[in-house]
Design goal:
Length: about 240
């Protein structure tokens, strides 16, 4: 299905709130009330990040849904040695202004593309998937069924943890967590990497769903090959890789 492109816009926007999501991850909330801006769930923005007299350009997925018009949220995880992500997660204060440009990207979902979704993410790969889930909730798309499989190293690193718990209470959304390195003693979710057994147990009607995979390249490719093995057509699998 060919989607009409949303117009790319370049604009300055102020950070009006900084939310600490996890020890390594923050959400920057930008005021975009002065811009007529629209995007598809799953798209990203280019951000100009000032760094030691130069400007670094970085791509960050939009976390807030397109139904939210006044503000735009970008969730950023600090990457070891990452200059831009370190600046954005450690230095940015409310009131700071950034040049943003977008939206970009083909990793998008709209209800007319399919109403049974399986979103599979690792770490900060949750961000565009969260945008899709928030859109389903805020636009009251109760006919859309979504299952999220979300992998993290540690419990403390689960981005949007409390909001995901609330989403899991919606009858049309199911949230499944797994932790790969350590887990609290009372942990109820899975441990270890997402594997075929987990997919078979948690996902209904495997060949008929649309799949959105986001995370490190090796993670995305591993999951994609599991899905192909399980009989999913490759055209039903959308991929976004985060370095």
């Amino acid at each position: 299905m060919e989607l009409e492109k949303k117009p790319v816009k370049e604009f300055k926007a102020k950070v009006i709130k900084v939310i600490q999501e996890t020890p390594s991850t923050k959400t920057l909330v930008f005021d975009i009330s002065h811009v007529d801006f629209d995007f598809y769930p799953g798209q990203y923005m280019m951000v100009n990040v000032p760094y030691e007299g130069q400007v670094l350009k970085r791509a960050y997925s939009i976390a807030s849904p397109p139904t939210q018009k006044e503000t735009l949220e970008l969730t950023i995880k600090k990457v070891p040695e990452g200059r831009a992500s370190t600046y954005l997660t450690e230095k940015v204060k409310e009131g700071e202004e950034f040049l943003l440009k977008g939206p970009y990207g083909k990793f998008v979902w709209l209800p007319q593309m399919g109403t049974s979704l399986v979103l599979i993410g690792a770490g900060s790969g949750i961000v565009p998937l969260m945008c899709i889930l928030r859109y389903i909730v805020s636009a009251k798309l109760e006919h859309v069924k979504a299952t999220l499989l979300y992998s993290n190293t540690h419990y403390e690193e689960i981005i949007y943890r409390e909001e995901l718990e609330r989403m899991d209470k919606h009858s049309n959304i199911k949230v499944v967590h797994t932790l790969t390195r350590s887990h609290p003693p009372d942990w109820k979710g899975y441990t270890g990497r997402i594997n075929v057994e987990m997919i078979l147990k948690e996902v209904e009607d495997i060949p008929t769903n649309l799949y959105y995979l986001c995370g490190p390249p090796a993670f995305v490719e591993d999951i994609a090959s599991m899905l192909l093995e399980l009989g999913v057509d490759k055209n039903q699998i959308k991929k976004e890789k985060y370095d």
